[in-house]
Amino acid sequence: MVWDDVKRIVQTKMEDEVLPEIEDCIQAWQEADPMVEGEVKLGFTLGNYGLDTVEILDASRDIPGGPMTCVGAAVWETTDWPVMTDGQMNYRVRLRFDESGVYSVPTNE
Question: Do 23 and 97 touch, CB atoms closer than 8 A?
Answer without folding.
Answer: yes
